[in-house]
Amino acid sequence: MTTEEEILARLKPGCICKGIKLHVILAAIEQGAATYEEIAKRTNIGGGSCKSKRCRAKVALLLAKDAP
């Protein structure tokens, strides 16, 4: 990830309901989390007012992007 991408990830929301930034989710993926459930457990995303609809979709896109 480039420096510009890192800066943007620190600013962009990952889980709007819980106020967790995208860089936290990306770090969990880099550390080996491979499913939404693993990422949610490590980062505390999900379970907000949208019932995980927004962050689950975002995580699915991120995991698909990293898939071989």
How does this structure look, described?
The chain is mainly alpha-helical and 68 residues long. It has a single domain, classed as Orthogonal Bundle (Arc Repressor Mutant, subunit A). Helix content is 59%, strand content 7%. The chain has four helices and two strands. Strands 1-2 form a two-stranded antiparallel sheet. Helix 1 crosses helix 2 and helix 2 crosses helix 3. The longest helix is centred in the C-terminal third of the chain and has 14 residues. The two termini are 17 Å apart.
Protein traits:
68 residues, mainly alpha, Arc Repressor Mutant, subunit A, two-stranded antiparallel sheet, 4 helices, 7% strand
In short:
By secondary structure, the protein is mainly alpha-helical. It has helices at residues 3-11, 22-30, 36-43, 53-66; strands at 13-15, 20-21.
